[in-house]
């Protein structure tokens, strides 16, 4: 049983990293088009011991911030979290309390804020105003893939998470 759980965790970790790479490709696309400069936020981590063949030990030095932050053309800020699930729903609490507080603060300062998430084959940018109000909107603290489709974004080799912003400014 332990091996099955480890394999499931490994696949979920791989899928989450894959989503982040697709988002980073979107960031590169936006930068080349002079639409935005958005970067992955490094984890607060220090190396405590170097091992052989590139291995190391380390520890986290702080709480995780939102995964991506940057500036859109025109000067508006953006901050968002990236979340993948292999389940049939994405729970609101996958965003930690600290990340939630930070995203809410960015929103209050006028930034475009949300969560890029993936359920099944659906990738979406859920505005923070919707994410934080799941309970009042859906009557529960999670979204299904069907509900996520309302916020679905194109994925032409990258996550085009700003497609709605540039087309409709829907993310306000």
From TrEMBL:
Location relative to the cell: Cytoplasm
Coiled-coil stretches are: none
Q: Which cofactor does it need?
A: Mg(2+)
Q: Which UniProt keywords apply?
A: Cytoplasm, DNA damage, DNA recombination, DNA repair, Endonuclease, Hydrolase, Magnesium, Metal-binding, Nuclease
- Any one of the GO CC terms: cytoplasm
Q: Which GO terms describe its biological process?
A: DNA recombination; DNA repair
Q: What GO MF annotations does this protein's record show?
A: endonuclease activity; hydrolase activity; metal ion binding; nucleic acid binding
Q: Which SUPFAM superfamilies match?
A: Restriction endonuclease-like (SSF52980)
Q: What is its main location?
A: cytoplasm
Annotated family: Belongs to the RecU family.
Record's protein name: Holliday junction resolvase RecU
């Amino acid at each position: 049983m332990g091996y099955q759980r480890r394999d499931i965790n490994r696949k979920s970790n791989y899928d989450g990293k894959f989503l982040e790479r697709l988002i980073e490709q979107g960031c590169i696309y936006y930068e080349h088009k002079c639409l935005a400069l958005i970067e992955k936020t490094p984890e607060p981590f220090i190396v405590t011991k170097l091992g052989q063949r590139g291995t190391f030990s380390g520890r986290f030095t702080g709480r995780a911030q939102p995964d991506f932050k940057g500036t859109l053309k025109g000067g508006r800020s953006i901050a968002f979290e990236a979340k993948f699930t292999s389940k049939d729903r994405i729970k609101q609490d996958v965003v930690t309390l600290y990340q939630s507080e930070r995203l809410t603060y960015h929103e209050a300062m006028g930034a475009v804020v949300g969560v890029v998430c993936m359920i099944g084959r659906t990738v979406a940018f859920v505005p923070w105003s919707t994410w934080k109000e799941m309970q009042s909107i859906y009557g529960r603290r999670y979204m299904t893939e069907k509900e996520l489709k309302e916020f679905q974004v194109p994925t032409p080799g990258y996550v085009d998470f700003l497609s709605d912003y540039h087309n409709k400014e829907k993310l306000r």
